[in-house]
Specification:
23% strand; eight-stranded parallel β-sheet; alpha/beta; globular
């Protein structure tokens, strides 16, 4: 079954050529994109959709979420808005509620959050464990995460539970807990921050997870300058996320990981993506991550929602894009790219086509997965020009229309 989407006013491909096509069309065949080009040259298809002069983008790729949780932290949010500073301790509140929730309800809650994200144009997303924090509940979260998200990340190293010895808990994260979650996850993460895990503890977690065959990510430099970025670079992590407080040496280290990368062809050794989480920055009243500096230094940047109950209870990637344009000094094209191709790069899903069957996401090109986001606007510029407006008109996820 093939579907022609035609009368597209602006087609922002976010492919390696950064093409923006006018008066364009796309053909979707099964779960893949089989043709793109000028509407006047479009081939026949089994079905046709008139885009009505609207703009078409790749679906958002949200590379950092925490969807497996129960409970409510509005009181913490109100206190923070009244002037209290953010600390990692609120994670324990969510841990207690999550442990007390049944498998059925935890799955139902997570699926509801995925549905909210998809309704706003997100077509590929990662989610983490990290609110179980013992072997039984982390394994359960990992199992559920593997059924509700496209990729799952092990974050047993989110916080040391109250009353436990940090070194003994780190042993647990690196041993029995890792063994229990390993069948369900592709990635491991560690919250390397004051009040969470020290540099030494983070190193132990990263080493154990790397030896177990997991890809690596790091929560780093969120609350102040620290060792997170340097550890991410040392361990060749796929991404380091938050990056609010960066010293010159951190920027230089990240830039160095991309020195051999050819952005024009997408070849060469990939570096560590800097993932910015602007919705979280606003909620915690931290300085916005220096995305402009990162891009200008040759570092690949992703935008993600960080959807979680404590510091960023939103899955709106459009909000993140709008913030990146209005407050972080990215162009519309740069912000959309960070929220699509950048997220795919951070999740190692930027490549793949008909030849290998592992279809790329985050860009619109022949052979890539048909993840498409049609805006109720003639151009992507309206995402920032009309902030806060519900501009998602239609969504295709792996070729299936979801909205």
């Amino acid at each position: 079954m093939s579907t022609l989407i035609t009368n597209i006013a602006e087609l922002m491909t976010q492919d390696l050529e950064h093409r923006v096509l006018k008066d364009a069309a796309v053909v979707v065949e099964g779960e893949r994109i089989s043709w793109i080009g000028a509407a006047a040259d479009a081939p026949a298809a089994d079905d046709a959709v008139d885009a009505g002069g609207r703009a078409l983008l790749p679906g958002w790729v949200d590379s950092h979420t925490h969807l497996l949780f129960a409970g409510d932290r509005t009181a913490e949010f109100e206190a923070r808005m009244a002037g209290e500073s953010y600390s990692a301790g609120g994670i324990a509140v969510t841990m207690k509620a999550t442990r007390a929730t049944s498998d059925f309800d935890l799955t139902r809650l997570a699926l509801g959050r995925v549905a909210e994200a998809v309704s706003q144009g997100t077509t590929y997303l990662e989610t983490k464990t990290g609110y179980g924090l013992d072997v039984e509940h982390e394994a359960r979260s990992a199992r559920i995460a593997s059924t509700v998200a496209d990729q799952a990340t092990y974050l047993g190293a989110h916080l040391v539970p109250s009353g436990q010895d940090p070194e003994a808990y780190t042993d647990l994260v690196c041993g029995p807990m890792l063994t229990a979650v390993r069948p369900y996850v592709q990635w491991a993460d560690v919250f390397c921050e004051e009040g969470a895990f020290t540099a030494g503890q983070s190193r132990r977690v990263l080493e154990a997870c790397r030896d177990a065959g997991l890809g690596l990510r790091v929560h780093g430099n969120q609350l102040g300058e620290g060792p997170g970025v340097q550890l991410a670079v040392e361990f060749e992590a796929a991404s380091v996320d938050h990056v609010n407080y960066l010293a010159d040496k951190d920027v230089d280290a990240l830039a160095g990981t991309w020195a051999g990368w050819d952005a024009g062809s997408g070849t060469g050794p990939r570096g560590t993506v800097a993932t910015c989480l602007p919705a979280c920055d606003l909620s915690t009243r931290q300085p916005l991550a220096p995305a402009r500096v990162l891009l200008d230094s040759g570092i690949q940047v992703a935008l993600a929602s960080n959807c979680n109950p404590g510091t960023s209870y939103t899955s709106s990637m459009a909000f993140c894009v709008t913030t990146a344009v209005l407050q972080m000094r990215l162009s519309v094209h740069e912000a959309v790219r960070a929220a699509t191709y950048g997220g795919a790069l951070a999740l190692h899903r930027d490549k793949g086509n008909d030849a290998d069957g592992e279809r790329a996401v985050g860009s619109i090109a022949v052979g890539h997965r048909a993840d498409l986001h049609l805006l109720n606007a003639p151009s992507a510029t309206h995402l920032a020009y009309r902030p806060g407006m519900p501009l998602t008109y239609a969504v295709w996820r792996a070729g299936r229309r979801e909205r």
